Amino acid sequence: MGSSDSHQTWGGRFSEGPDARVAAFTESVSFDARLAAHDIRGSIAHARMLARVGVLTDAEFDAIAAGLEAIGERIRAGDFVWDPALEDVHMNIEARLTEDIGALGKKLHTGRSRNDQIATDIRLWLRDRLDALSAEVARLRAALVDLAEREADTIMPGFTHMQVAQPVTFGHHMLAWQAMLARDSERLAEVRARVNRLPLGAAALAGTTFPIDREMVAAELGFDSVIDNSLDAVSDRDFAIEFVSAAALVMTHLSRFSEELVLWMSPAFGFVDLPDRYCTGSSIMPQKKNPDVAELVRGKTARVNGHLVSLLTLMKGQPLAYNRDNQEDKEPIFDVADTVMVSVALYADMMPHVTVHADTCREAARQGFATATDLADYLVRRGVAFRDAHEIVGQSVQHAIRVGCDLAELDLATLQGFSDHICADVYEVLTLEGSVAARDHIGGTAPAQVRAAAARARHTL
After folding, report:
1. Is 161 annotated as catalytic?
2. How many domains would you assign to the chain?
3. Helical ranges in 418-461 per DSSP H
4. Are residues 88 and 126 both part of a single domain?
5. What is the mean pLDDT of residues 240-246?
6. Tell me: the pLDDT tens digits for 33-52?
7. Which residues contact 358 (CB under 8 A, 6 or more apart)?
8. Where does the Argininosuccinate lyase C-terminal domain start and stop, copy by copy (predicted)?
9. What per-residue confidence (pLDDT) applies to 162?
10. Which of the listed residues 333, 363, 393 is the one where a domain comes to its end?
């Protein structure tokens, strides 16, 4: 049997083609076809370099580049038939190129392997996804900054252990979410820097005997540098794991936002209302308005976290260099990129239209003796040791619970019965407004500080 009758581009070594089940089991074009534009871009850069170093003539390069661009047009138009028998995106494009321009198409693969080709494609694709995701994260951050400025004076309870702890403002709370996303932005930028290194030129694992110019290819494709070691270049998937890890943190932050929005939208809290277009109803209970976007983001976080574990497990036992196991990296990466992108985008669209019920938030902050710590601080400023002040305030709270009122509602004589250090000015610190205004330092809850922090955050967008 001649090589022309054997399977694919590697069949010369084999006396028979693969079992049909093996062919179906090993194909990847059903999911890696989304890399086509990046595969074509990388192939044109590779061919241009081969012409520069004399492996191809200029005329050969022109024909190859024109053929690849024509294939790209057909793919974009949806007029390209993907053949699973050709295994992957690379072989489908190369086979069509050879069909279109003849035997010259077979020269394209000179000096490279599918090993370094796929490593290049996925980095090009992921770089684009990182740029798009970073832009969406910035858009969500801007929405949170806007909301923080809008609600800088809106008092709400701050919680620890889901118990009312101290009063804060809604704007301050939004800036806490923004701070999480700011760190996410930093992480995505760091991941992008490590993604943006060129593996092409490593060939299968040991480089190539052809006089290639890797720096030229890196410059044309916009890579910052080339990967120095050929073994590492084809087998490294750290960059993919880092991306999924960073994405998992983005989703974890969104999941925490979601948990709070689900609680706050409940009539038991009533702090916010979400736009109808981001909610759904019940098939049986006509009064229901369910925060489905928030709940689904919370649920999809579990899937993204699972992909992170999957990729870590995929790589943990692989010897150098490339192994076919790595075909299993793409579906998790693709799914993570799709999931985190739509989740962030929906939040960026939704948050500007959240309605905040300021009166309900303020009333909730009156519950649970949220200004108790302010009373303790007041006593310390008047010379009482903090532990003693803590005891005095605890007794005051116990009394307020018995009589069914807030600390600010206790009369001065009653308060002075717990400590003669308490004077008439104590009510300035027992009010919610006084409590938040007193924290007038960087990172504090004072409305002026919230606005200043929002302005600082806006400068980083």
Report:
1. yes
2. 3
3. 427-430, 432-438, 447-459
4. no
5. 98
6. 999 999 999 999 999 999 99
7. 151, 154, 155, 170
8. 369-437
9. 94
10. 363
Strands 225-226 and 197-198: parallel
Which tokens belong to 220? 């044309």
For 250, what's the count of Cα atoms within 13 Å in the CB-facing half-sphere? 33
Q: Is 14 a domain residue?
A: no
b/e per residue 294-309 (b: at least 16 CB within 10 A): bbebbebbeebbebbe
- Is the pLDDT at 13 greater than 80? The verdict is no
Supply the pLDDT for residue 303: 97
Counting residues of the chain whose pLDDT is more than 90, the rounded percentage is 90
Average pLDDT over residues 185-194: 98
Sorting pLDDT into bands at 50, 70 and 90, what band is 1?
very low
Q: What pLDDT shows up at residue 322? A: 94
Q: Which one from 3, 225, 266, 282 is the annotated catalytic residue? A: 282
Residue 2 lies in a domain: no
SS3 content of the chain, % helix, strand, coil (to 5): 70, 5, 25
Reply yes or no on whether the pLDDT at 58 is more than 60.
yes
Is 12 inside any structural domain? no
Identity of residue 58: D
Q: What is the token pair recorded at 83? A: 């053949």
Amino acid identity of 119? A
Same structural domain, 219 and 335: yes
Both 69 and 125 in a single domain? no
Query: Are 395 and 299 contained in the same domain?
Result: no
Same domain flag for 406 and 330? no
- Residues forming beta bridges with residue 155, ordered by sequence position: 169
**Total-model pTM:** 0.92
**Domain harbouring 354, CATH code:** 1.20.200.10
Q: Does 3 qualify as catalytic in the annotation?
A: no
Could you tell me the residue range of the domain that residue 454 belongs to?
369-459
Q: What is the pLDDT of residue 7?
A: 45
Same domain, 138 and 103: no
Cα 185–Cα 292–Cα 254 angle in degrees, nearest 5: 20
**Given 310, 342, 363, which residue is the final one in a domain?**
363
